[in-house]
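Document type: protein sequence-to-structure record

Subject area: structural biology

Format: plain text, a pair of labelled lines:
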Amino acid sequence: MSNISAALVKDLRDRTGAGMMECKKALQETEGDIEKAIDLLRERGTIKAAKKADRIAAEGLTGVATSGNFGAIVEVNCETDFVAKNPEFQALVSDIANFVVANRPESVDAALAATFQGENTLEKHISEKIATIGENITFRRFSLFEKADNGAFGAYLHQGGRIGVLTVLEGTTDESLAKDLAMHAAAAAPRFANREEVSADEIEREREVLKAQALAEGKPENIVEKMVEGRLSKYFEEYVLVEQPFVKDPDKKVSALLKEAGATLKGFVRYQVGEGIEKKQEDFAAEVMAQVNKQ
């Protein structure tokens, strides 16, 4: 049965927490019988995996893969640092990075729905890993780059992959330089590759903040504008990669390093595992008291 409505798929997903593609497939195999579909998902262990889906996965690893003129960086999350050190989980991260660079999906959802390693979907593969590893696992995000023939990728994984960086240069095939810049980005945590990436709104907002600071310091209004422009240069030096002092040689800016090599930084991505994910705060004392009060 191929004519399965989106509403029926949603109903099964809401009842089980299983992935959309797995729900649709189960309904097709059971000819739209939702109760039989639930049983089928239970038999396959999919629901067991889905029950872990509401647990916060803020640990994990980043991974980088390159193939020809394409490069990818991914973040895959789990619940604990212990699992992040698990060779099976580490292999999963590497497999996903290689899958992304080979298939170049448009989104995480598209990647999850795609056939993975010639058998199941990536979503199903991750569900099976959840069932065997015993923790919630999520494929959170990825970025793809394409380099020119006269370009180079630089990859760096810090702390085993808790921070991952992928850089792409043009005008040089020097991979060691590209890797040096990836290491620099891991340490310096820039937000932008160059000034052109900083939006006009953000620059204006920063300018207003700096102006208010200068006025609050009692500086004369006739010199405030000059002060603001000087301090704005410091802002760029802090957050724009090419304007930062190079970590291996602080007397030289990254822009000077690139100029010496005749290279241009076309872009970079820096992922830090769990950034932006709200972690659950455990209160052990409160948990004990709650158990005592129940008795």
Residues 6-50 form a domain with the Helicase, Ruva Protein; domain 3 fold (CATH 1.10.8.10). The first strand starts at residue 59 and ends at 67. The chain has a mean pLDDT of 88.
